[in-house]
Amino acid sequence: MASTSRTEEIAESEFSNSSKDQEDLLSFPKTDGDELEHMDWANEQQVQQMEQMQQEMQALRRQLEEAQKQLTKEQNTGVRVVSENAEAEGKRLRARVSKLLTEAEERKFRVNEVKQQNEELKKEIDFLKRQSATNTYSRRDQGRRVPPEDNHRRAEDFNVS
After folding, report:
1. Residue-range domain boundaries for the chain
2. What percent of the chain has pLDDT over 90?
3. What's this model's pTM, rounded to 2 decimal places?
């Protein structure tokens, strides 16, 4: 019974740790227009959280195996202890593992979405850099050329009605 309450404490502390990590994601200090860096940082944080969740799942699986071994040992030694707590703990652990697997899959999906958005933003940034370079060249030449608006004005000046 002592192991049951200890297991519950571990599971609750792990759950509270993951919610703290999510709060940390939201508290990233944004700098002047550096959203891509923020997205990369958030992506890394999500990957780290996924890895932590996988470690938590492995720990919960080990605890489940230990609980099942203990139950088997009690049954094999002839000690007929009705261990409803062990069975309930096993069910809770299975539910927790299932929940963690689902969360891990959801986070993996979100991480992939963020990676895709990062790639799209990088392409857009490259395009804008190329366009900016082209615009800079055009501005340098503007002193030598007559802007199109001036051409129309001059044609209108000579247009006699």
Report:
1. 2-112
2. 25
3. 0.34
